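Collaboration report, partner site 2.

Our partner group contributed sequences for two proteins of shared interest, and the home lab folded both. The records are reproduced in the order in which they were received, starting with the first partner submission.
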Amino acid sequence: MKPALPTETARLRFTVGAPEIDEEFDAALLYFTDGTVEEVRGQAKSGPVSAKNEAEFQKFHSQLRSRVETPRSFMEYEMFGERIPNLEAQVLAELYNPAHAGSFMALLHAHKHPQMRFLIRPQGAIPSMGPEEVALINVDPGDEQDGIWYMSHTVAEIRAHTYSSNEEKHVIAPEHYDMDVHVGKNDHLAAKATLRFKAVRDGDRVIAFSLLPHLRVSSASLDGKAIDFIQEGVKQDAELSLILPQATVKDHEYTAEMDYEGNKVVSKEGSGNYSVGARENWYPAVSVFRDRATYDITFHSPKGLTLVGVGKPGGEKKEGGDVVTEWKSDEPLLVAGFNYGDFKKKERVDDVDKYSLEAYATTEPPDWLKAASGGSPLDDLGGAHQGGGGSSGILLTPSAMADHVLVDALNSVRLYTQWYGPTAYGRLAVTQQPAFDFGQSWPTLIYLPISAFLDPTTRWRLLGRNTFRFSKEFINVVTAHEVAHQWWGHTVGQASYHDNWLSEGFADFSAGLFLEATLPTGDDSQKFWDSERRMLLEKNQFGFRLNDAGPLWMGIRLDSFKTHGANRAVTYGKGAFVLHMLRYLMQDRQTGDQAFIEMMHDFLTTYHGKVASTEDFQRMAEKHMRPDMDLEKNGHLNWFFYEWVYSTDVPSYRLEYTLADADGGKTLLTMKITQEGVEPLFKMRVPVYLDYDGKLAKLGTVPMSGNSTSDELKITLAKRPRRVLLNANDDILAAAVVQK
């Protein structure tokens, strides 16, 4: 389908629900399957397309279809990266099924912003993000205003109150994958994937899959019969789409089979280290982190190397020059993956929680780390040199720290089982990856950075002489954070990008719990929350606090040229603080954290194997909240979620108090609390603590509203405290706390 190109510069002025947009466009490409054609025919004057305009059209169209190998921004990744959509295939899918609502897509080359998109798509304006159907986005990473300008549900949905993060937008529901996968010593992968799926609705003939563009499909079949498929060139919009010979019938089961092979999935990093780059799209996935399926995977990998997959290991045998291993998951998973290398394995079984834990690490670091260390900076560490360092004799043996990693993982599993309840997996493999400063968690499989497998002295020597981005706080919590995703992110999934804090924020909160439980006498837990606060509230080079980029609920949309990293800071840090604040609001002198623990158990049980939204979690918190949390006397926590999830206010506090002798050897505390820096309706219960020679006792909480100062409060204490404190446990995310 090739829409006509305007012959003159067009001026577009329209309102999308928020600011009015006024822009000039010198080219527009329109894709539509709705009633636009009738409107155009009734109003436009047609005429021949000039050779100049035809050439411009071809140039613009070619640009839209060209994949960017290394995207420079999130939006460029979504629209031109590995997930670059095949617009013609999307239009074909809608034309094949006219019973469902059509779409309208305007791809605009504007004077100020040459990569604009206006989208109205019933299947989701950006399907990988969530269900919202309307969007205005700027895809140009060189533009300071790149990103999503507007994104929302349709007016009809909003008026009817039928919109939700849990809207079902997919045309099929995967049920089971059976895969036979050959992984080579180089970066080659060849596989046959058999997928059993159920049709979600009637009438569809085009089924889209996410698959790494470098993996080329050679054949496809449906229920045993060969079918056509669409997969453009590697450097183009290579999204894979199967073309079904007949329209789907709702709830009917089908079996699709695809043969594919290619490279860029696994790359050599030297000395037995391999990096699995394509972790989400090494197989044809319908929707990663949204749809669950069971898996039976047979891997063929070279002898001398160890492959670790998701699920539970089955049989193992040697076949020619390969080792053949089987991996099976009876519990439906949101994503499948594997790690790979010359690993040494250590394992232990936790008899308390019946969990099997394994740690996999190499005996030598990847080549880049050897080169970075240069050999000589590490030679004076003392002790015997280990691990194939060549002539430099460097002391870098990741597998030597596997026991330490295993202990952290074991303690995390025990702690989270106590606070949240059990997962259904029963197994966890913690594996080393060559990357230095990030981790990732798949169900039953964790990719930990190699920095977690280096002893502290080695890390210090490396980082003292090099310029890697690194922090002690990261190493302290990376294992605990990634283990927490087995609960939050996998056992309970998130409904959309709005709800990603239910995964990442919960995992960060869990890491704070881990520090509190394992280092109770140190200050690492306090440093963790201090670090989270700084990440949110310190100004960047443009003078912005990342917290102020937008509400927690906005997720990935918070990132922009001047607020780079806001999504990370707010989704992880503020998301963790939201759960942390709820914990302290729910604490009781007699039962401690019992109410909070019961809430988290209930949330895990209720949404086990499902996706949850922010609204779902709010309802769960309201079910378990203490009576004194009902500040609006309506049985809801709208006040709390509005302030901390849907808004950006961060309060400051000032405490003024005196301690005086009272009758009977007691002490009279007189105090006033001031809350500042918030909107008039902002409410909070502000915690007051007493310090008795280093031991803190919570006196209670004082309800505050807006920018105000409390009445003078007088309380008689049994004994004199050393001092009185506000917010001693970071109970509230506060910009400042002044006490005098």
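Second partner submission, folded after the first:
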Amino acid sequence: MKHKKQIGKEEVKLNKPALSPVTSGSLVPSWHAWLVFIVGAMVYANTLFHDFTQDDAIVIYDNMFTTQGVKGLPGLFKYDTFYGFFKEEGKANLVSGGRYRPFTPAMFAVEYSLVGNKPFLGHLLNILYYGLLCFLLYKTLQTIFEVRFNNATYQNFPLIAALIFAVHPLHTEVVANIKGRDEIMSLMASLFALYGVFKAYDTGQKKYLIAAAVSMFIGLLSKENTITFVAVIPLALYFFRNISVPKAIAASAWIWPPVILFLLIRTSVLGFDMGGTPMELMNNPYIKLSGNEYIPFSTGEKMATILYTLGKYLVLLVFPHPLTHDYYPRHIDIMTFASPMVLLSLLAYVGLIYLAWKGFKSRSITSFSILYFLLTTSIISNIVFPIGTNMSERFMFMPSVGFAMLLAFILVEYVAPRMSAKGVLGITAAICLLFSIKTVARNTVWKNDDTLFLTDVHTSKRSAKVLNAAGGALTTSAPNEKDPVKQQKMYSQAVEYLDEAIKIHPTYKNAYLIRGNALFYLKRYDDAIRSYEMCTKLSPDFTDAYKNMAVAMREAGKAAGEQQNNLVKAEGYLQRSLQLNPNDPETVRLLGIAYGMQQKHDLALQQFLKVAQMTPDNAQAFVNLHHAYRNVGNEGMAQQSLQKAMTIDKDIMQKQGR
């Protein structure tokens, strides 16, 4: 195939710049690609010593396959990606459609074999892979555009686009979170497949097609978004090699076998079910509470909410502030077409589609950039199929290439004619500096879960999920606070966050559980018990709620007896606690004391006998039994119990001041 010689035969009239081919890289310094690599890596250097965060638990340190190291590799390829975390059938399909992305968990398993449960290597590799991705983006753009640009100004286009992509703040969730490597590898593999098809077309060498097919398969195993390049690759050939659509499809036919193979494997693992409509708000943002049950949005509400979200993506691409890891309900509220923002978003996308259509025949770069953006956004839009959440910044990782290309083209096409090429690079440097400052600052928020949750809760003030997470972060970190006043404030703030989460999502069982824990530490035992009871009402098999409720009832009983001197109330709490956890020796002991103080000595004796049986090495249990026997008039057994206590601890009586 001598395609470069055939370009003139099939050439249609195109917009500027000129179409005459140039030798690849003839006007471009070789260090440009390495500059992009260095910039991409350096803006994330401050994540190197961060902890695991967010979804790292699912694919790394709490995944039963990943934590086996290389021995767990078969399990990672055999099951849904979530299976190794939930460790039971069914729960892996909580999000519609399931997830089959074994490639990056396999990478994590190998890393786990090398360094164990330590995040440093994961962060280092994410930084390097991201730098390599930026390098590849530059090389790919240089390759596919080389026959479009034949002057110094336009030769800077790949550099400008790659630099804008490298520093864009929307990418922080992907690079700073180790789990985000699935996005990095997916886009890297997709771009390499695009690069390979173009090299094969330009040189006629089949080895590039083989490399493209292998890369496409790796990308699909990393994340399903890669499948959008089935359309992107022939589209790029049509736009930048000046051939017809049928010929472009034929030239990229080698990418189809790996796609078909992946779909067959995925179907064999996950089945044909793409998921129904989960009626849990944290897994389906398009449901609303009606009375006491959740029902789906109306068609108008759903489409309006999706349009609003798509518009928000456009805003964040241009002005990436404020950023948050959490866009769960109701950070994105229920929208209707009466909302001006929905209508503006609709107008913006209609405009983009019009520009893409208008420039399609003339093969304009504006048209290609928009079509690339729309194609790669489609799979995460919630229009094609549900993805389990309204939006996420990481979903713009692949589409943001289209934004970077469009912005770069605006600079070289419309700004460059009014100033020198150096002037355009100066503007690019200013944009990149502003983006870099935001990126580096945002990276610090991803230091650990507590920092992430307690920062983003101030942005996502209406997200039940982050309110719940912030409440949990405060509840688990408060015990480490030595200042009792600050500690109480932390628990109180946790309750406030969790109350808000429950207002947004009244059936959020996990929020009730954590709220109960915070109230327990505040010694508001009755409120804690009610919170745990709500957990069990929502989920009758919620084991943790029953366990915590038993402890709360025990402590409530202890407080009623010791602080309120209300023995009847104490007895009631302790009996209820024992119904939930009959094998807790402390509850049995406290009930024995409550009986004894009410002169119910026979009942007290029964409880102390149970404690002695439960804790046969506990000297104090036999001292209590000694007193119980004396109270019922059995001096012989009382002395035997005392001797047993002294056998265990000869100084037990002295310790009690006797």
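Feedback sent to the partner group on the second submission included the following. The longest helix spans residues 120-144. The CA atoms of residues 167 and 436 lie 5 Å apart.
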